[in-house]
Amino acid sequence: MDLREVINKMIEADASDLHLKVAIPPTIRINGELSPLKMDPLNKEELRRAASSLMTKEQQNRFVEEKEADFGIGIPGLARFRVNIYIQRGTIAIAIRPIPKDIKTTEELNLPSILEDLALTVRGLILITGTTGSGKSTALASMIEHINKNKRKHIITIEDPIEFLFTDRQSTISQREIGTDTKSFSSSLRYVLRQDPDIIMIGEIRDIETMEVALKAADTGHLIFSTLHTLNASETVNRIISFFPPYQHLHIRILLASVLKGIISLRLLPRKDGTGRIPATEILVSTPTIREYLLDEIKTMLIPEAVSDGQQYNMHSFDQNIMSLYKDGIIDLQTALDNSTNPDEFKMRLRGIEQSSARW
User: Fold this and answer.
1) In total, how many domains does the chain have?
2) CATH code at 131?
3) Is residue 280 a contact partner of residue 232, using CB atoms and an 8 Å limit?
């Protein structure tokens, strides 16, 4: 296997991912669907050589010890990539994702303009959530670049690995990579406030220590961006609280109500015309009602309703956004139903719209 040739094929096909695994041909993901390349199945030796060519000696040593490695690389003449190497059934497997060279605006990404407004918030906590491959890193990079173009700030990013490379414009951006520039999220966050940041971007919140530092930093007047692997706004709130033991829940609710500025949840849906994917979004913006609901465990269950009723604050639920995409002919009905939060309610609302249209 010529690894560069395979990566070239991925780029030419405009694929989002490349999977290399023993006993099957290289496989790419296009518009969310896996498609094998017309090549011979891979063997153990090919995967071992490919993995070795992608890793430094230090990364190889860490891989032998930890059985997995996650890092970013740039291949001259091609692009920058995020690489994950792991072991499955005793053999090496590799997942490679290309990272766009240019950071697109929210408009180019078909994301709501409220993201740019949130990016220019002075202080607080902004979270971008979704499953793996839903566009969290891309949306986050777009928001950071919007700040970079419009404000003079010192931005520190802590990433595992570094994905998008920023060029200083109005702002000064310091990018730190776990394993290369710092040992861990927790160790880097322990000292980050001494580095005079205005804005801190944490690649992902994975544990209680990282969440605690993020909340405290937001509470001391910094603007914090991060991501979580949660499906929607209400699940995100519950996940944040569940990081902590029960005796701390009231304190965390008070802190969260004080610092949370917005939650952007993402899902990538296939377009009806087959030309790619379109983001569906759920947007929560901190309002007096949202803050009241965050403070009360019982009222927290009302957050989805507040999001749906908050259009005047540029809020909307997934189902509202998916309905708009369906009505505009961008996605088909099955895609809408498969990705709606409540398919039965979605069908009822759809029937109501159709009946209303028929009367006219």
Assistant:
1) 2
2) 3.40.50.300
3) no
Quick check: is 299 in a domain? Answer: yes
Q: Give me the domain span that covers residue 184.
A: 114-316
Residue 184 shares a structural domain with residue 90: no
**Are 150 and 280 members of one domain?**
yes
Question: Is 120 found in the same domain as 265?
Answer: yes
Whether residue 309 is found in the same domain as residue 192: yes
Q: Report the chain's mean pLDDT, rounded to a whole number.
A: 93
Same domain, 307 and 272: yes
Each residue's pLDDT tens digit, 87-130? 999 999 999 999 988 899 999 999 999 999 999 999 999 999 99
Predicted pLDDT at 353: 66
Q: Please say which residue of 316, 334, 350 terminates a domain.
A: 316
Q: Which residue has the higher pLDDT, 74 or 360?
A: 74
Q: Tokens 């409220």 appear where?
A: 114
User: What CATH number is associated with residue 38?
Assistant: 3.30.450.90
Total-model pTM: 0.90
pLDDT at 179: 84
Report residue 354's pLDDT band, with 50, 70 and 90 as the boundaries: low
